[in-house]
Design brief:
With 232 residues, this protein is mainly alpha-helical. It has a domain at 30-131: Hypothetical protein, domain 2 (Endonuclease III, domain 1). It contains twelve helices and no strands. Its EC number is 4.2.99.18. It catalyses: 2'-deoxyribonucleotide-(2'-deoxyribose 5'-phosphate)-2'-deoxyribonucleotide-DNA = a 3'-end 2'-deoxyribonucleotide-(2,3-dehydro-2,3-deoxyribose 5'-phosphate)-DNA + a 5'-end 5'-phospho-2'-deoxyribonucleoside-DNA + H(+). It holds the Pfam family HhH-GPD.
Length: 232
């Protein structure tokens, strides 16, 4: 695993590449954000935004989602993967918000994960973006980049990746780091076609070294400042 000093370098490089990284799911309040993140599971933000453009006009409150038959809501989100189960979860979530939270999305992470369709990642996104609570949500991009750069081990679970990032990243940078890692993975270090030739972190990247057929560099000796030759 990387040291805090090495992590600082990674954060600074990615921060320089994507200083304005942000949540790309369109929303205007915590409730809309919760619905959007729920819909985004195994689906691109771009597709979710196309669907929610009309969805958030038709449905503005938990009551609105419960005022239509489940089949109608399914049709409204049918372009989204797993739309049937997501429609069911949305209505269950809305019923729970009304019955237990006065129709409002709870601010506490522990309460958010009780909602149908809301897992740890979704709760982290909501608390950080809607309520300003520092959090790192590990989606597919964050997980991939963390493992490629050696921040996490290849067989780490999503929770283990999150815990390692939380230990290495200053707490006041958790949310912006989450966004920047997503941007880095979405627009630069892609799953299938990463831009390895132009990557400023290529020396750190397990995948990049394989693709570019580079040997793994051995660490510099701290005391002498002498860099050992690359391993063959």
């Amino acid at each position: 695993m990387v040291t805090k000093k090495e992590m600082r370098h990674i954060l600074d490089v990615i921060g320089g590449m994507f200083p304005d990284a942000h949540c790309e799911l369109h929303h205007s309040n915590p409730f809309e954000l919760t619905i959007a993140v729920l819909l985004s599971a195994q689906c691109t933000d771009e597709t979710v935004n196309k669907v929610t453009r009309d969805l958030f006009v038709k449905y503005r409150s938990p009551h609105d989602y419960l005022s239509v038959p489940l089949e109608e809501l399914e049709q409204d989100i049918r372009r989204i993967g797993l739309f049937r189960s997501k429609a069911s979860n949305i209505q269950k979530l809305c019923r729970m918000l009304i019955d237990e939270y006065g129709g409002q999305v709870p601010r506490e992470h522990s309460e958010l994960v009780k909602l149908p369709g809301v897992g740890r990642k979704t709760a982290n996104v909501v608390v950080s973006n809607a309520f300003g609570v520092p959090a790192i949500a590990v989606d597919t991009h964050v997980e991939r980049v963390s493992k490629r750069l050696g921040i996490a081990d290849p067989d780490d679970t999503v929770l283990e990746v999150e815990q390692k990032l939380m230990r290495l990243v200053p707490k006041d940078e958790w949310t912006i780091t989450h966004h920047r890692l997503i941007f880095f993975g979405r627009y630069h270090c892609k799953a299938q076609n990463p831009n390895c030739p132009a990557c400023p972190l290529l020396e750190r990247c397990r995948e990049g070294r394989k693709r570019m057929k580079m040997p793994r560099a051995r660490k510099t000796k701290e005391k002498t400042g002498v860099t050992l030759p690359a391993e063959e």
